[in-house]
Amino acid sequence: MTSVLIAPDKFKGSLTADEVAAALEKGLLSHAPGTRISRLPLADGGEGSVAAARAAGFTTRDVTVTGPTGEPVTASLGMREGTVLIEAAQICGLGVLPHGHEAPLTATNYGLGEAVRHALADAPDTIVLALGGLATTSTVTSTSTSTAARLRQGAPVPEGCCWIDRLRLSIVDPPTEVPWTPGSLNTSSPSSSTAASARPPRRCT
User: How many CB atoms lie within 10 A of CB 76?
Assistant: First the structure.
């Protein structure tokens, strides 16, 4: 018996990865009824990242946060064994812009920081940020502001251009210094204040 693994990404703007996989499975079975098919929806860090994680065994929890234009949006956090996955596209992505109107100079990712706050409530070992598909032009500054973050020197995170290689999260008890790494925010236990070094992930503009 022939075995086929169907592992597609989304068809942006038309089908989710799971819908693509289902359509391909239907087509294959219509021509080869005896085929053994496994479906594994994938994502590249943009839209569909939490859905792909859910297909791989993650559970989800919905939270309400600030959308890219300031209106509330509902996003799903993926969770499994001490890891929380946050899909930025659900919070401040192009797909959640009201009426699809782009606002690159004013759109905010403040809600991404709010999602991190929700995630920290579960005391995870690791928070993974899937940062694809953003409608904004700044990743760290607005997010950091909404997590009550501070620069290493203790000053509030500024708006505008900056390099950030470490954040101090004052919302955990005791306040915890954590490295800001490309694509993820790794947090130590709320009962520990150990810090690790990290290179800045990107320029904030």
Answer: 20
Query: What is the residue whose two structure tokens read 């946060």?
Result: 65
133-168 pLDDT per residue, tens? 888 876 554 554 555 444 444 445 444 434 444 445
Nearest to 167 by CA among 148, 190, 183: 148
For Cα atoms 159, 182, 53, give the angle at the middle one, nearest 5 degrees. Answer: 115
Pick from 9, 44, 2, 46: nearest CA to 24:
9
Looking at residue 36, its amino acid is R
Query: Tell me: the pLDDT tens digits for 67-87?
Result: 999 999 999 999 999 899 999
CA triplet 157, 196, 151: central angle to 5 degrees? 10
Count of C-beta atoms within a 10 Å radius of residue 1: 6
Report which DSSP code applies to 122: T
Give this prediction's pTM.
0.69
Q: What percent of the chain has pLDDT over 70?
A: 67
User: What's the length of the chain?
Assistant: 205
